Amino acid sequence: MRQIININNDWYFTKEIAFPQKINNLTMENINLPHTWNNIDGTDGGNDYYRGKCIYYKNLNHIDLRDDEEIYLEFNGVNMFIRVFLNNHLVGEHSGGYSRFRFNITKYLNNKDNILVCYVDNSASREIYPQKADFTFYGGIYRDVNLIKVNKSHFQLDYFGGEGLKITPHVDGEVEIEVFTSNSNNHKLLLEIYDNNEELVAKANAVIEDEHSKQTLFVKNVHLWNGVKDPYLYKVVAKLDLDIVSASFGFRSFRIDPQKGFYLNDKPYDLIGVSRHQDRALVGSALTKEMHKEDMDIIKEMGATTIRLAHYQHDQYVYDLADQYGFIIWAEIPYITEHMDEAIENTKSQLQELIIQNYNHPSIIVWGLSNEITVVNGCSPSCYKNHEELNALAHSLDKTRLTTIANLFMLETSSPLVKLPDVRSYNLYFGWYVGEKEENDKWLDEFHRNYPELAIGLSEFGADANPQYQSEKPVKGDYSESYQAIYHEHMLKMRKDRPWIWAMHVWNMFDFAADGRDEGGKKGINQKGLVTFDRKIKKDAFYLYKAYLSNEPFIHLAGKRYVDRVDEITNIKVYTNEKEVSLYVDDVLVETQKSEYVFNFKIKINSEHKIKVISNGLEDEMVIRKVDKENQSYICSSKMEVTNWFDEAEELNSDCFSIKDKVKDIKAHPVAGALYKKMMEEAMKSIGDVAKSFVMPKEMQEKMDNMSLEDNLKMAGHMVKPSMIKQLNDALQKIEK
């Protein structure tokens, strides 16, 4: 009978490097898995976290194994390269930090102690993805490690980390079941299907031929897997001699219509949700099952219907929970930012692992081939060819699902890469990095008008928010919780009028580590999350989405952290899925409003006040107070907003250049162009490695060159300091046209 033995406990770890035979001479720390060595230095800023080699050591002791048994060593996630030795023998190695892999260690066992030594390396490499991205590449054995003891006749364990069981259900009740085995030719196979109540609903007997069997079973009166509304699951149990495997599955159909959006089981189904990274404060990527479940529970509370599990394969437990909760999943590989010819084979092996290990999950509908892959070098012929091959590979492995790509908003919509996958999405950041939030609407409308036959989605959109920062008049780039809220208010309104957007995924559900960042009052953290890195604070925007998406009645007063208020007339904002809200100030009813999702009340304040809102038996309250001076702790000292480009009262000499002139005219002048180039070089020093590597597409560059330099600078945000703009304008005013 198969035994799965978890061996997470009692390992030893060191950053020192030595040959296996010298391991006992090292000073090692006693640890338990999951473990990463970057849980602190990978989240504190400076872009200086340790990327290198480390050693994990464990004594497996004596392992009882019969002559008719084999034993496998299973790793569920090691970032990003590992070489494994057992008793000084090289067992194997693996490249890629996010998938499951196994080694058959039977022939390396001793009759006494069995010494396991793992060399793990997250050093920079041109042969493994990812290498450039806006998140921390945590090193370590950060997911479970198991021993799997099986009879020599067993379901296959060697093929890309799969289970040897492939289930393809159809909504008419037909279930195609394939099994892949080892040492089992002519052996008998029993297949059983159970419903969600553990009742047997179908079974079949077969004989293994060429280590393979494909059978078709039928289930009567099929109960569909229907997303978050009704995530009904069945289970296949496959029995082979002394080996048993099982997997859950669901009956469901889906399609994506370029004009009408996503359909689940032939009915319109709104895909509005979030993206998720797998890390959190203090533990980095070494999350426990309890932490993974907490994340999924928070997403469920918000009412999301879909999750983009970015930018890599997530823990198997997360996909299991997605099936159980009914989330629609976008699953992807970490082919990101820069195409590297040296890593082409790695993109293919990671895609094979992703699909083979996750084929049976009903929650998954699309395989993501890449993310913002054109940032560094655009779409080279090699890059496009690799995408063609990945697309074909995905369809050869899985004929039931679609492929997709997440494109950066700078990629021309005319690029052939946009049309290559079955569906596509864009990462749009108008209203944060560039432009104004209304430009998201214009961009999407233009795409839909120009390419009505192409399904388009929003794979990323968001605004950073530090809950400490608050404002009565929030603006783009101030990092306030207040601006993040009004930004997402706009995006949800925008989506409501455009059902053809097949899916939208907020970037991000949780703040996450990006060690190269230093902005918004925190180092090493991307703060676009609707929930903080430690999961302790749900930002106001979280409750906005809950108002739109959740069926659980609730009411939330936004701005609870905005206590000290300067303005005599202040706005009280409420998010709720109720239709009527009554506002009380100091227990006196002030106003009752009828609205949908967002309620705004204007009140006059002169001291400290208790604010309470009530709706249909629900209530929430907070305290605010009138102050004479703005609370400086509410203001980000390094906010992106740049105002007062120069003294507006100053009269410009129209015979000379200024920032009011078009960029193309400034660049065409030898002296003015040199000044512009120097300023942009200085500006680029303030951004991370990924952004520095970005190559502006010709189509976008032409658009920007036709804009005024002033408008370009507004889009640049915190990259350009006000003093730089002032100096540039003064210098341009000395250059005659």
What features would you describe in this structure?
The chain is α+β, with helices and mostly antiparallel strands. The protein folds into 5 domains: 148 residues, Jelly Rolls (Sandwich); 76 residues, Immunoglobulin-like (Sandwich), CATH 2.60.40.10; 284 residues, Alpha-Beta Barrel (TIM Barrel); 62 residues, Sandwich (Immunoglobulin-like); 70 residues, no CATH class. Helix content is 20%, strand content 32%. The protein contains 14 helices and 43 strands. Strands 26-27-28-29-30-31-32-33 form an 8-stranded parallel barrel, surrounded by 4 helices. A 6-stranded antiparallel β-sheet has the order 3-2-4-10-7-8, with no helix packed on it. Strands 37-43-42-39-40 form a 5-stranded mixed β-sheet, with no helix packed on it. α1 runs parallel beside α2, α3 packs parallel to α4 and α7 runs parallel beside α8. It is globular. The relative contact order is 0.09. About 1% of the residues have low confidence.
